[in-house]
Each structure stands twice: as C-alpha cells, then as structure tokens.
Amino acid sequence: MSETNPAATAPVSADAAPHRYTAAMAAEIEARWQDFWDAEGTYAAPNPKGDLAGDPELVARPKKFIMDMFPYPSGAGLHVGHPLGYIATDVFARFQRMTGHNVLHTLGFDAFGLPAEQYAVQTGTHPRVSTEANMENMKSQLRRLGLGHDKRRSFATIDPEYYKWTQWIFLQIFDSWYDDEAKKARPIAELVAQFEAGERAVPGGRTWSALTEAERADVLGEYRLAYASDAPVNWCPGLGTVLANEEVTADGRSERGNFPVFKSKLRQWNMRITAYADRLLDDLDQLDWPEAIKLQQRNWIGRSEGARVDFPIDGERITVFTTRPDTLFGATYMVLAPEHPLVEKFTPDAWPEGTRDAWTGGHATPAEAVAAYRAQAASKSDVERQAEAKDKTGVFIGAYATNPVNGEQVPVFIADYVLMGYGTGAIMAVPAGDQRDFEFARAFELPIRCIVEPTDGRGTDTSTWEDAFASYDAKIMNSANDAVSLDGLPVVEAKERITEWLERTGAGEGTVNFRLRDWLFSRQRYWGEPFPIVYDEDGIAHPLPASMLPLELPEVEDYSPRTFDPDDADTEPETPLSRNEDWVNVTLDLGDGPKKYRRETNTMPNWAGSCWYELRYLDPHNGERLVDPEIEQYWMGPREGLPHGGVDLYVGGAEHAVLHLLYARFWSKVLFDLGHVSSAEPFHKLFNQGMIQAYVYRDSRGIAVPAAEVEERDGAYYYQGEKVSRLLGKMGKSLKNAVTPDEICAEYGADTLRLYEMAMGPLDVSRPWDTRAVVGQFRLLQRLWRNVVDENTGELSVVDVAEADIDADTLRALHKAIDGVRQDLEGMRFNTAIAKVTELNNHLTKAGGPVPRSVAERLVLLVAPLAPHVAEELWRKLGHETSVVHEDFPVADPAYVVDETVTCVVQIKGKVKARLEVAPSISDDDLEKAALADEKVVAALGGAGIRKVIVRAPKLVNIVPA
Vertex 20, ends 78 and 869: CA angle to 5°? Predict the structure, then answer.
C-alpha cells in the first residue's frame, strides 16, 4: 500500500462549522478515496498463478468468490433500484476481506441483446457504439457508489476475446453426446469409434462405413448436445426472430415488445438440455438456494414417471407417454398436436367411409381439414390452447390407430389442447378419467368407457355423467384381455402390471418423462455471437477449428432482421447476416484442402454469454485456454459444504430462475463432464434481493405524471392542481418516478445512499423508496463524524484512554455492537447491522465528552463495510497509514456481550404487576423466590394463596392465585 495520506488534502469550508460533514465534503472525500483505491489496486484479488498472481499471503487465506448477476448496459442508466444488490454484495465482500478472506468481487457487462440492436435500427448507430457508451456511463455511476470491484477482471460479452470462448464452448457442446450408461457427456469422436467398431448399432441396420458423409452427419445429429433440426418453434413476426419457450409470456406474446407469437416449423440450433434433466433435478438438493427458486426449476423440468405406449397405425406407430397406463383400456380415441410431424404422413386423401360430419370440420378432404385447423391453432398461444374452455375444437385426420391392449380401432384427431412441447405431442384420450378428454368426447360423440370404479355414487353408466371421474384411490374395472387383467386392482399395482405386460409384448415400456424441452439456441438477429459453423455444398455442418476463433461479427449496413406484420404467421425469418454475401460465402481449409462454405447466419441468443461468465472472472486474460485448471480449482472447486463447487455467493433477481440459472447449470455440467472444470455447478449459494419500489402517480386519463412534482395535501395527491391517484409499483423512466443514484449522491453523498438502501429493510424483501427518509442516514454519518472530528478545528476530538479506564456502559455498548454487527453482516442482515451501529453511535453522543480513541477506531471499523469512504477518511485521521479495507474486523469480548442484568416481567392473572432486574444466569428457583418477595407482587396478591407459579428464567414469572 502507498504511504500517501489522501486525508491530508481535504479542503476546508468557511461556514460556521467549517469541518462539518456535508454533502460537499462527502463528494470530495468519496472522489478522492475512489481515485486512491484505483491507483493502489486496493481490491485486486490475487490468483494462485498466472498474470493476476499476487500476494501469496492473501492467496493462502480462505477464499470467497462473490458475484452479482450480469447487468445489461441500458441507455437510460441506473435508477436507485438497480444498485441494491451491488451495494449488498459490496458490503458483504468488504466484511469478508476484513475477516481474513481473499475475496474475488468484480463486475462485467452482458452487452449483446435486443435493446442495443433496436436502438441501432432506429438511429443508425452501430450497436457497439451505443453499447460501449452505455457501459461507460454505467461504470461511472457504479464507481461513484464506491463499489470494491477488481477492475482487472472486468469485461463485456461483446469483447471478441471473450466471445471467442463462448464460441469455443459451443463447439465443445457440438462435439459431444450424452452417454446414458455413463450418465455424462463424452466427445463425439468416442461415439464414432463405437459405430466404426460395431460396438453400437447404426440406426437402420447398415454399417458405419456404408453410410455417406451426409448420412453420418444425420446420425450424429441425433446424438449431439448441440444440433440443428426442423422443429416447431415460437415465431414472432413482429420481432423477426424465433424465441425460446421461456421468452414467451403466459398469454402467448413476446417478452420483449409484446408481439404475438406463433408456432412454426424452422431449422434451428438447439441445445440438448433434456439429456441433463435428471442431474439438473438431483443436484438442486445440494445447492444453497431459496426453496422458491428450486421449486420453479423442479416444476419447469417437470419429471413424471409413467409408460411409453405404442399405438400401431398403417404399419408404423404413434407413441404416447402416460402417467396412467392403468387406464389404457379406457382409451377410445387419440389426439395429436396440430404440428405433430406424423399428421401429414397418416392423413389420407379422402375421408374413410362413414366418417361423421362433426369430425370433418366441414371440409371436403382430410388434408383440407388439417390445414385449416393448423392455421387456426397457430394463432393461439400455448396458454390459450390449454385454457379450460368448454367448447373443444379439433378435426379427425381420417386415420385410425390400434389400441394395443384390446385391438380396438380408435380414431386419430388433432386438437389444440395437445401441445407438441409436452410429452410426445400425442395422447391416448381416456375421457372417463380426464376432464378435457371428457368434454372433447362429448363434443364429437366419442365413446366414454368407465375403467375406474367411481367412489362418489355416480354409478358406471357414463351417459349420465356430467364430468370425468379421476381417482388414485379407486379400483380398476373393465380392463382385461386374454393375457392380462387389471380388474379389482388398486392404481399402483395396476400400473405395475400393465407396464410389465407392455414391456413383455413390446407394446411399450416404463419410462420417465420431462416437461423440459431442448433449448432453442438460434436467433435471427445481428447483435449476438456468430455461430462457429459453416456448411459445405451438401449442407453438412462443419465446426471451425479453434485456431479460427473468434469468428467476429462483420460490419453490416442494415442491422435489422426483416420484420413482418405482427399478426402474419405465414412468414419466415431473414437475418441481417444473410445479407452480407462476402462474409457468408467463404473459402476455407478445414484440413482437407480449400473448399467453399456458407456460414451460419443466425446468431446465439443473449443468454449465451452469461452461461459461463463466472469462469472468465477467474482468468480473464487467458488467451490460450478457457480457464487455467489450478485457478478454477482454487476459486470454484468442490470443498467441504460445496460438493459440486461453484461461486460462494451469487446475488440477483428471482426472475431468472428458469432462464439464465438453468442454462448456466447445463453448460457447467457439460464442461465438467468433458474435464474442463472441476465444478459441476456454477453457483453454490444464491440470494434473491427484493425490489426497490416507488409510487406511481396517474392523472384522470391514467397517464403517469412526474412523481417529483406531486404535492400531498390532507392525505390526497395533486399534480398541477389536479388530483391524481397513487399506487406502489416499479420504478422506471416510463413511469416518471425514477430517482437516479447521481441525484442522491449529489445531495447527500454515496455513503448515505449505501446506508439508506441497506437500512430500508431485509435485503430479500421489496420496499418503497422515500427520498425524504434518506436524510436519516446522512445525520447518522454527521454524528459519527462529530464523535471523531471537531467540526470547528478539523482536529481529532478523541482521547487516548486505557481500556481499563473506559466506563463499563460504553464497553458493553461497544462489544454488544461488535458482536451483533458481525453476526448481522455474516447473515446479510444489513438493516439490523446499521441499527446496531446507530445505537452505539448514539450512546457515544449521549455519553458526552471525548470518545476514547480505541472505541472510535472500532466504531469506524464497524462502519467500514457499509460506508467505506467516510470510514477511510476517519481511519486516516485517527493516524493509520493503511487502508481500512484490509484491516481486521473487531472481535467482541464475551465478558461484555452478556447483559449484567435482564428485565424479568412478573404477571398475576396475565397482567404485569412488577419488573425485576435480574442476572441472566438466575435459576428458576431463585427467580421465583425473588418474584414472590417483591413488594409490588406481595401487595397485588393481597394475602391470597398461590395455586401455581410458572417460571421462564430469566424473563418471565407468571403467578396463578388460588
């Protein structure tokens, strides 16, 4: 550390108290110490090796890796709600440094994505230009808050040296397959070797050597963890791109822009995250995450046990998954999702003889009926399709399948209440036991067969039923063939017996199904990572070698994807990159001589860069490998209490439960399986901070008005003389209620803002912003300053007093504060820690006279994690030449932490009659004697006998008179 003393350069103001702590003084102090920290590298966290290797003494300490969720550099800048989590992690990181840890705490930027691209489309400004300008503004705002980040480790996802490794990871996933027997990812070359050696059968029965290159590529595509396929996607014409399921709102619209989303079939890149469904579920148990987030992930993955059942049709089969194979005898028809790939294959040219008019939808041929219904279904969201509407719609495709348990021919329909994204996209309909099937069967006059004995008195004649009957407790009936009978069995036993029969006969098998779908990984955008993939003249995908990475984004004149009428589902994407022919069409030597190739013109989704950024923080300048193994092991490797390794503390919003958090876990597991990292999980401990809310004021038209200009009169609110309504909601520029941190820092200083945000309430609870209340924390800092510095002279006002000569009350107040603040900071209870600091500071103020130096020093150290600028200033004024950042946090003396006395309440008939000051260690017997001897208790009893005395030492005695 430098021996320079920044405190020596503090200016002197000329008011009545020239050295009073003011906003102007705070601004000067804060700017000066921020410069000092930057110059001295105060927050540099040393690695055990590499170009960030440093102080071996620090490396030898226990380590803490503390992270915030990636911020996106918005052009609007920060409002006071944004830094809540950043301040919290900074306080916690500072405390960890002061308690002997080597702390890695830094912040980068998740800078690819739609907002910058949309801005580029509107203004003609290159996304990089606007994004970098936004980052500089945000860096300035964050720096002003005094955040202790290791700036050597910061980066943005748009940096080519960063997304080089995003592309490299994609290639690792592309060149991998999931071995179900080994339960891990393995290199695709090992799968090829199995095919070549005949150890694994080639689909179709041919030998590997007999396949063409294109056929081999198709086979491997069925195994690769990253693969391209023609599949149903969420197509958003208004944005000109496809979206992942997680990016579509519950009402079937785009999360960004609120445009309609339709089902369409396109060739897209996917990540086979479903291969990891079991591990993603099982490993949740050992993560220190909020139970609500774990539950969201479990529900999203949606594991269910049941059976796969094959229904033969035209020499082939339709496969369904059911959790109730015991009801198979009650399946009287089948339903496919409208977009199911088998629909066209099994749709005949003409209606079978005797087809009911109600089944055809009024169309002359099955093909016409299917096409019309598909168009109708594509206009609905998944939520709309699954809504509990009484009017069920669908059409018969003109084909029949065979129920394997009884040989019955059951008609095959398409209906919008069956989704391709769930199960197999096909169901066996058991109308007696499922309400949607029941309503559909009634609408289309289909048989309803009772196969579960009703227990509610309705009887077995389904023609009299008003709804379906579902039960897991009733017994099975009407369910037998020549080889198997379920009649009379309870559900669990019936499921086991029918599953055994299905496996024995080859008609199906017991299996596990997941709600989780493979991750759609393509976007028809410009501002994202290019895929390191090229296609040869036969359309076969080839990965670029690592030596050709990064594949950088080319310059384009038009950044916008082609967008369409938001309601026009019959459109297809056109990407910005596809219009740059010089970049798209290239001649490359991929190891077998120069050849012509065509580049992939989709880009990766905005989630790609945040799937692995924790690793880049560890080794940010490594150009030779993803991360040095020794460095990764040091910061993230498994250890006691962290069986899967990962970041020690990750703080961010709960809204990313099934997006970023699930995707990052998947990438981490693939990298772990392939031996690139030692941590199978990216984030061991997760903490979701609450939201800072603000009042939104609206006029009679419902338009938001500037909150800062609203006046309160007699409990009502007025804007320019007009009465307005008030409602607590989000803070934001569009709601005209945003307060910037710059405003608060200018009026009170950054330390005050830090204290106020941490004091507002528990960190995980949302709370309303109140600018008027900020002054309370400013006054705390003024009293703190006054207890150490003479406001008139600027000199220290403390006195040198031996510990033995400090009064007992002050020592008790000091050590109780030390003990309480230490526990609160460790538990991230920052609001109560501030309350304890305030209590100690107030005690010193009320005590009068100079504050003992040793008490003042420990008070400053308690404040240091919360208000670091003023703590640094006071620490130097107290004569110390080193930064407070790496000082030891005070340790309480247990002798002073225990109260000398506690107040015991004495009740008679439940009413308080006396209060006794007693020793905390008093026994029940001694406390009872003391209570009964108290003169107020004697008087209250008035000579009455005592039936019972209940003692809860040391705080309660309850006397029940006779």
Answer: 40
Q: Does residue 529 contact residue 603 with C-beta atoms inside 8 Å? A: yes
pLDDT at 152 over 50: yes
Query: What's this model's pTM, rounded to 2 decimal places?
Result: 0.85
Most distant CA atoms of the chain, gap in Å = 111
Task: State the pLDDT at residue 1.
Answer: 34
DSSP code, position 43 = T
> Regarding predicted confidence, which is higher, 657 or 628?
628
Class of residue 806 by CB neighbours under 10 A (exposed 0-12, middle 13-18, buried 19+): middle
Does position 373 have pLDDT exceeding 90, yes or no?
A: yes
CA terminus-to-terminus distance, the chain: 74
- d(CA 819, CA 827) in angstroms, rounded, equals 13
> pLDDT tens-digit profile of 866-897?
999 999 999 999 999 999 999 999 999 998 99
| Rg value, the chain, Cα | 35
Q: In the predicted model, is pLDDT for residue 861 greater than 90? A: yes
**C-beta neighbour count of 588 within 10 angstroms:** 17
Place of tokens 């309370």: 776
The distance of Cα 758 from the centroid of its chain, to the nearest Å, equals 22
Find out whether 644 and 669 touch, Cβ atoms under 8 Å: no
**pLDDT number for residue 10:** 39
- pLDDT at position 4 over 60: no
The pair of three-digit structure tokens given for residue 398, joined into one six-digit string: 């003109």
Q: Which domains does the chain have, with CATH numbers?
A: 1-42+772-898 (1.10.730.10), 303-514 (3.90.740.10), 900-961 (3.10.20.590)
CB of 262 within 8 A of CB of 237? yes
Contact 751, 870 (CB under 8 A): yes
CA distances from 586 to 228, 581, 876 (A): 21, 9, 63
Prior bond to 706 cis, omega within 30?
A: no
Whether the predicted pLDDT of 390 surpasses 80: no
Question: 119 pLDDT band (50/70/90 cuts)?
Answer: confident
Phi and psi, residue 649, nearest 5°: -150, 125
The Cβ of residue 242 has, within 10 Å, a number of other Cβ atoms equal to 21
Contact 395, 359 (CB under 8 A): yes
CA-based nearest residue to 932, from 905, 901, 906? 906
- Residue type for position 115: P
